[in-house]
Amino acid sequence: MAENVLKGKRIMGSSRAPKQVSDLRHCAKKDCETTLSRYNKREFCYAHAPTKFPRLRGRIVAEG
Ligand SMILES: [Zn+2]
Predict the structure, then answer these.
(1) Domain regions of the chain by residue span
(2) Using one digit for the tens of pLDDT, what is the confidence trace for 21-31?
(3) How many CB atoms lie within 10 A of CB 38?
(4) Maximum Cα interatomic distance, the chain, rounded to a whole number of Å
(5) 46 CA distance to ligand 1 centroid (A)?
(6) Tens-place pLDDT, residues 30-63
(7) In angstroms, what is the span from residue 62 Cα to ligand 1's centroid?
(8) How far, in Å, from the CA of 15 to the mean position of ligand 1?
(9) Helix (H, G, I), strand (E, B) or coil at 45
(10) CA angle 34-40-42, nearest 5°?
(11) pTM exceeding 0.85
């Protein structure tokens, strides 16, 4: 009894390169067209990202 089994698995599916940024997100700012990376979880771009520092009201900090 010879086993009629084909040996040798054919490699299925070639390793595809990961999709490049397919879903580009834009800054949440209306007039801002800055695109955010899909890896960037922020809603705003760097320029419009809310700062961590609370703005001092009524006080203008002049630097320099
Ligand atoms: Zn922006």
Answers:
(1) 21-48
(2) 457 789 999 99
(3) 13
(4) 93
(5) 7
(6) 999 999 988 878 899 989 988 766 666 666 666 6
(7) 24
(8) 36
(9) coil
(10) 75
(11) no
